[in-house]
Request: fold
Amino acid sequence: MTITHPNFGAMAHDRVIIFDTTLRDGEQSPGFSMTLSEKVRMAEALAELGVDVIEAGFPIASNDDFAAVKTIAETVRGPVICGLARASPGDIVRAAEALRGAERRRIHTFISTSPLHMKYKLRMEPEAVLEAITASVTLARNHADDVEWSAEDGTRTDIDFLCRAVEAAIAAGATTINIPDTVGYAVPADLRRIFSTVRERVPGADGVILSAHNHNDLGLAVANTLAAIDGGARQVEGAINGIGERAGNCSIEEVVMAMRTRPDAYTFVNGIETPNILKTSRLLSTTTGFDVQPNKAIVGRNAFAHESGIHQDGMLKNAATYEIMTPDSVGWTKSNLVLGKHSGRAAFRDKLVQLGYGEIGDNRLNEAFRRFKDLADRKKTVFEDDIIALIDETVVRDHERVRFEELEVRSGSKGPSTANLVLTIDGVRRSARAQGDGPVDAAFRAIRELFPHEATLALFSIGAVTPETDAQARCTVRLQENGRLVDGQGADTDTVVSAALAYVHALNKLLVKRERREPEAMSA
Reply:
């Protein structure tokens, strides 16, 4: 049978909608804040990846969130653009206002339905919750033809009450019903049972899209999502790299590749352009400052690495002996020498496009090209990974208030180290000299002198981008302030410069967070 949906028309039974919440639930993760331009760039990458719905943000949360949803709605074409709203008139009207310029729009409204949430979070009786569902979905339908309703903490909701709540939402005009495992409590059998029960028992359920949104607290988000599809879900919600509240969301790339790799078990189709997966993952990592772990499925750097002699022997004879998918099917290519110091600007621009960074403005291109030439003079060989690390500083990030300019350090085995640092702060070039216990400590002290702040250093780590002795160092700095966490990254052939770049990146992200009102904790 088919379902007729306002934004997707007649949908075949084997069609699965991919709903990406990287920019909403993903960005609520500690340390993952993005600027407006970074969100727009990420939304454009998601559109190129082929996701069906982009949940662009929570418009009522802050002016920054509203501006992000509004700008994405007005500029990004292809996917449905979605805004989140609680079951309150103010939230819904604000979301509708932000989405007005979208080619295709969706309002996503939610309310808690579990006994625990209703009693302690909402302090509402079940009948009052049902009334709120009807009122909120009705209002949302007055502003958009496509309305998604979510039962927050749905997997811990009494099944009889859940069915009543879903029935109320459908009767009020919801076109998509989302049953989230908000706290990552469920196991696959739960999801299969819940979705099949709702599909069988609720009047009108066969005429709407059922959606699954699973958190990864027990490491079961992808397994639960696939079980929900078995139970009748035809929309899956998740985030690139699995980012999200606490342990994260269902990883979009993992569930998509599970369906593609096992068509015998999951005879469903989706619109994801899988060769774009890796570059989308890398863009998110460089934008947020959070690398994925090396053994992360699909996008981790060890996902297609083979060290065991037995495995290597099998790979040499037939790659299928140990690889269930090809690396190029998700965007992996061998990192070869790609450009040198004699390469021109046009070749460099083409390489950036190949790496997934799209067209960039002339000013940023010139700065990135200048840094590339400088790197090529210092390194014997320049790899794709070097370029990715380099443009992290010049193309992906927007250092709006604090910009690194120059650093000179003096250090050794005798006496304290000294750092002479130059930063541009709010457009004004400033310099400072500081001493410390080692060159990195001295550089960080100089930053604090130029831009005083109360944030504490929660993490500092160093790794090499490539294996050579002249490799760029990639540093990560985590700052903590009043419960806020931000991660910054920097890369340079000079390790101390890399550390300073990472600190400045984290500081800029912290300034963005200071200006935003954090949205109410939820992950419907």
